[in-house]
Amino acid sequence: MNEKIALISLGCPKNQVDAEAMLALLRQDGFVISPEVEGADLVIVNTCGFIEEAKKEAIETILSVAELKKQGLVGALLVTGCLAQRYKSEVIEEIPEIDGIIGIGKNGDIAEICREVLSKKRVCEFPSKLSLPIDGDRILSTPHHFAYLKIAEGCSNCCSYCAIPAIRGKLRSRTIESILEEAKNLAESGVKEIAVIAQDITRYGTDNYGEFMLAKLLKELCKVDGIEWIRLLYCYPECMTDELIDTIAEEEKICKYIDLPLQHADADVLKRMNRTGDEKSLLALVQKLRERIPGVIIRTTVMVGFPGETEENFETLSRFVEEARFDRLGCFAFSPEEGTLAAKMSDQIEPEVKEHRAELIMEQQYRIFEEKQNEKIGKTFKVIVDGFDEENLFYTGRTYMDCLEIDSIVIISTEEELLPGDFVSVKIIATEDCDLVGEVVTG
After folding, report:
1. Contact 304, 334 (CB under 8 A)
2. Starting at the edge strand that comes first in sequence, how are the strands of the sheet with 100-102 ordered?
3. How confident is the model at residue 2, as a pLDDT?
4. Looking at residue 364, what is its pLDDT?
5. Relative orientation angle of helices 351-374 and 311-324, to the nearest 10 degrees
6. Could you tell me where the DSSP H helices lie in 137-175?
7. Which end of the chain is more exposed for a tag (fewer CB within 10 A), N or C?
8. How far is CA 36 from CA 273, 371, 430, in A?
9. In whole angstroms, what is the distance from residue 427 CA to residue 382 CA?
10. 272 secondary structure, DSSP code
11. What is the pLDDT of residues 233-253, one digit of tens each?
């Protein structure tokens, strides 16, 4: 069997991990993994279907591959991932060039599915989403020194705006043993930095162990030889226990970097989102984290234009952003997603109002971020090297304050030859747009 398969994965790192697992299964079954789409016997588009922009990107990608198929540049087209799971046969009915579409519960049978599609069978299968494998080998699509480590699948939070529980199912945590085994394998393959991910990593273990287990898991991960940085993505505020905070503060390998998606700060809006907290309690949490974890970087996301959001509600959020002075912040306008409670709410906000509010928050945050970046000039940081820019002839890397492909970079000046995964000390001498510029400090 020498059929070539190319895979395009869209959306979040969690979906990327699913794609890497499918690639491993395909290679184990004898397929050739092609880095190029053109010339592939079969192209898999692993879609995202979370919000409107992601759905548009998924459809556009599927259509672009369908056009290559018409031109005879690719063989067959198979669609997987969240969009497939969410809209099922609707997608294949709307785009007849698709040869097969499967739900996430069929990912473990991807090799068999590909064989069926290549034999000209039109496949459309959607077993239980709970059949999605949460363990197994992967072929990394990230740089060799960095990997995502997914510790759980699904979500049981049921925020009123979010379709993820309907798409991915309830929370299913992996065992500590399986996670540690994977972390050790990653370290042996040369991975230096892992980013711990799930829809909500702070609730890890509450389903299968009956208690919050993230702190215990992190302490075990810190014992894995070869892993030097452990980064935490997608922590929920109500689950930031004292044990977890202390673990982050005490363990040297854990980056003092917390992704804390708060969504809003107004109590009424948060209640309608089926979230907890208010401006006062969230500010207190931010202050607590900064006091107990010296040097901590807090990243958050906020949503504007949620149904019923008044100017007063928005001003509460704006004031909160100003007072909290987040190190990293992303803002997006509410998108009414089919099947969610928020999409059915009567007091929807006009699109132009939502977009304007998002622009105001991002302008506000950009000023804060620029000030914080300038404060780093003259300071020296440990930096992991990510690569070399052939066009501009400089190395790129990141401090503990920045996650790969999400945050800013450090432009590194040096006469030394560096390799991806190397750690170097870099003194920051300037800023360039959103990035830092520095020179390697030796001795």
Report:
1. yes
2. 32-33, 4-9, 42-47, 76-81, 100-102, 123-125
3. 80
4. 98
5. 10
6. 164-168
7. C
8. 42, 42, 38
9. 9
10. H
11. 999 999 999 999 999 999 999
